[in-house]
């Protein structure tokens, strides 16, 4: 939700790649959020972009102070340099790559 809020509409694969997640569970999570009215797809086709609905924005605005507190706690416990280095390294990770093999997996 935060990625949609900060970066705007995005497809499932783009969101999964940005967050270094598997697209399958990411799509299922988005579908559950859609059922709750938090996100939507204006066009009903497989690769359409997801957008954050006003209800999703409201959730994020309510949770923002909590996330800032968690972030500040992590930075004070582990040091700002470590947290910054971890975020930088995660951003350098390659996009999600499917496992080799056959069949379904999560």
Q: Can you walk me through this structure?
A:
It is a single chain. The protein has 106 residues and is mainly alpha-helical. The protein has a single domain, classed as Arc Repressor Mutant, subunit A, CATH 1.10.10. It contains 5 helices and 2 strands. The protein has helices spanning 2-7, 12-19, 23-35, 54-78, 80-92, and strands at residues 39-40, 51-52. Strands 1-2 form a two-stranded antiparallel sheet. The model has no long low-confidence stretch (mean pLDDT 84).
Topology:
Layout: H1 2-7, H2 12-19, H3 23-35, E1 39-40, E2 51-52, H4 54-78, H5 80-92
Antiparallel strand pairs: 1-2
Helix pairs in contact: 2-3, 4-5
Summarize the structure.
The chain has 106 residues and is mainly alpha-helical. Helices cover 61% and strands 4% of the residues.
Structural class: mainly alpha
Round the mean pLDDT to the nearest integer and report it: 84
How many distinct folded domains? 1
Give unreliable regions as ranges: none
Coarse shape: flat
Report the total helices: 5
Any key phrases for this structure?
4% strand, Arc Repressor Mutant, subunit A, 106 residues, flat, 5 helices, mainly alpha
